[in-house]
Amino acid sequence: MRVGRQKRQRKTVRFYTACFGFREPFKIVLDGTFVHHLILHALLPLDRPLSSLLSSRRVTLFTTACVCKELKSLGHAHVQTLRSCEGLKMARCDHQDHRVDGSSCIASIVGQDNPEHFFVATQDSDLRKLLREIPGVPVIFGLKKSLFLEQPSENQRQFVKSAEENRMHMTESEYKMLISNKKELKRKPSILVSENSTMQDNLENEAQREEDATNIRSTRKMLETSKFKRKRPKNPNPLSCKKKSITCPSNAKDQGGRVGNGTSRKRFRKRKRLTKAVQSELTSQTN
């Protein structure tokens, strides 16, 4: 299906869903001519091309007992069409005693306002012309291997426009109710004034209560979030502190017995130690 044609089909489906209350799964009633067209062009199974046409995941197909009887009377040439119709759901009609042709049966089911929200699929040009005059009846037909959904007729569009205008106007019962309400308002103005003042006071009290509750919540939040911070001793200012001096050790002596960094060095006295022979001689002299 081409893009432009698919957009037109979707727009038509939206028209019927918005203006006439069609809902998924869509119900489609088929006559014998349309079923024969689908079988002739191998558009099987029957629900697949119709669901693709309406852009719906699921559709429910119907036919009538009068359509089946009409196909049965046509003989052996329409046996396959008859079997396909017998496999569909049967829409209830009022022709149990005397059967009529399929077009008349479908027209009677649709009625004047299509209460069951049926899509009608037919190849009968006379039936299609008749259904265009009835508001809220979408018509489907086939052309070779393609299926088409007819655009809403001018009669259907005019019906929707007039119905919308009627909904905008006031009915007689609504007008009478409005007049009675106006008279009631004139009789009891003081009651309305008192009610309005009471309502205004209630609203002001409610607003005040909400404001107080908000203030309480904000105060609680502030108390919960604020914590006592204990003062602790801080480090001294690094700019006010004297830097440490770096000493460089040196073994070289300077003049006056001073070391390289300017400090005096301690002097040790050298002691002379006597030999053992001298010590023994001294001890003998003392004795």
UniProtKB/TrEMBL annotation:
Q: Which residues belong to any copy of the UTP23 sensor motif region domain? A: 227-244
- Give the matching InterPro entries: Fcf1/UTP23, PIN-like_dom_sf, UTP23_sensor
Signal peptide region: none
Location(s), subcellular: Nucleus, Nucleolus
> What does the entry list under GO cellular component?
small-subunit processome
Q: Polar residues bias: where?
A: 277-287
* Record region (Disordered): 194-287
UniProt cross-references to CDD domains, sorted A to Z: PIN_Fcf1-like
- Protein keywords: Nucleus, Ribosome biogenesis, rRNA processing
- Please list the residue ranges that the record marks as compositionally biased, kind Basic residues: 264-275
What are the BP-aspect GO terms?
rRNA processing
Main localization of the protein?
nucleus
- Origin: domain of life: Eukaryota
Q: What does this protein do?
A: Involved in rRNA-processing and ribosome biogenesis.
Q: Which family does it belong to?
A: Belongs to the UTP23/FCF1 family. UTP23 subfamily.
UniProt protein name: UTP23 sensor motif region domain-containing protein
Annotated organism of origin: Acorus calamus (Sweet flag)
Higher taxonomy = Eukaryota, Viridiplantae, Streptophyta, Embryophyta, Tracheophyta
